[in-house]
Amino acid sequence: MNISATNNLDAFWMPFTANRQFKKNPRMFVSADRMHYTTSDGRQVMDATAGLWCVNAGHNRPKIVEAIRQQAGELDYAPAFQMGHPKAFELASKLVAMSPTGLDHVMFTNSGSESVETALKTAIAYHRAKGDGSRFRLIGRERGYHGVNFGGISVGGIVPNRKMFGTLLTGVDHLPHTHDLKRNAYTRGIPEHGAELADELERIIGLHDASTIAAVIVEPVAGSTGVLVPPKGYLQKLRNICDKHGILLIFDEVITGYGRLGAPFAADYFGVVPDIMITAKGLTNGVIPMGAVFVKNEIHDAFMTGPEHVIEFFHGYTYSGNPMASAAGLATIETYQEEGLLTRGAELAGYFEDGLHSLKGLPHVIDIRNIGLVGAVELEPVAGEPTRRAFQAFLDAYDKGLLIRTTGDIIALSPPLIVEKADIDFIIDTLGGVLKTLD
Ligand SMILES: Cc1ncc(COP(=O)(O)O)c(C=O)c1O
């Protein structure tokens, strides 16, 4: 199929894409099933990235497809404000039942970015609702990714995502990132060194005073910056420092949620429960946009005061918990549970790890890291041309039938949780072939 003859590629300004490069040589998917995409020129491409870290149950799953079909014909939309429909409540209850203890309430959104804004606003408003309105500061982390809205890029720490957009939110500070190639390169699983980086939070608190700080937000495993696994003990330290100072701890589990690490959530994996947990992506298997923000009882309850006819929290979206997304979410959770996908990563993590680390020693590789079913291969950048080498690897892999994701000069892998050992072999062999011939 000649795409450019049938479509004008000009009108669509594509997100996070090298538009001019793409439009000269488009890469189009036209269908997908389980582990594979089909391209517009009829090739099969293995999805080693679960779409954008979201298609955790693989593509074209019957239960999810059927649920959406049925829902569209039954109740297409119901107002999200002052009205309800049963499936949103059912989904929220199921999510609470599978989430770490204490996270007993859920607010729905349409994306990870919206979930982040929801969490940040909730944290600030919670302190105010308790009569502690001086707690307004938000502490993020260098190299953090929390979506693309103003709150998210303010607490985030990826420079190109921030530098074009003016003053951002005020009252934000950042922890140092935890990436330490010198001490931790080629770590299998959780790095040994760097827990002391959490103590930087004490320094930041010393600078601003705890009484001005509302929340700390981190990704338990930083994904979009290139899969940075937290050092041993680091998250527990953050938890302890936040508790000591009355600061809320927010985990952004948009990538780590719904089985990516081999446990339902990273909070389960690390045994550290946040006060607010942000999710999206895998919630609906990526099929219909949806996010869910989990909050502790005491946060929810702090708002449930005043006259009962008055709205308690002035926040929400037209599509919060909309019927189609709720139906997709319910069918997704059922699929995960029926197939044991939320813990399947734990069974395959060792095989995936061995495969990934077998790439050590190939040209330009300077680090390999992994946890659960997510991993990264970091490449030495071409001098003076950052991102060029990894982007070339992405293009070569695509030509060889493999979808990988790159960020800077890091290759990230996060296959659907239905991945089989033979699929892992294909991913590793193909990526190895790409790396061997990379300039
Ligand atoms: C940790 C994290 N937070 C937030 C987001 C933003 O999600 P969305 O693109 O759905 O807005 C992402 C997306 O990759 C993410 O990885």
Task: Describe the protein's architecture and organization.
The chain is of the alpha/beta class and 439 residues long. The chain has helices at 3-6, 19-24, 50-53, 62-74, 86-98, 112-129, 150-155, 159-162, 181-184, 200-208, 234-245, 266-270, 297-303, 323-339, 341-357, 388-399, 421-436; strands at residues 29-33, 36-39, 44-47, 105-109, 137-141, 172-175, 213-218, 248-252, 276-279, 291-295, 365-371, 374-379, 402-403, 405-407, 410-413. It has two domains: 3-61 and 340-436, Aspartate Aminotransferase, domain 1 (Alpha-Beta Complex); 65-339, Aspartate Aminotransferase, domain 2. The protein contains 17 helices and 15 strands. The strands form three sheets. A seven-stranded mixed sheet has the order 4-10-9-8-7-5-6, with helices on both faces. Pyridoxal-5'-phosphate (PLP) binds at residues 111-113, 116, 145-147, 219, 223-224, 252, 254-255, 280.
What coarse outline follows from CA principal-axis ratios? globular
Q: List ligands, each type once.
A: pyridoxal-5'-phosphate
Q: Which CATH-level-2 architecture of the largest domain? A: 3-Layer(aba) Sandwich
Percent helix: 25-40%
Strand residues, percent? 15-25%
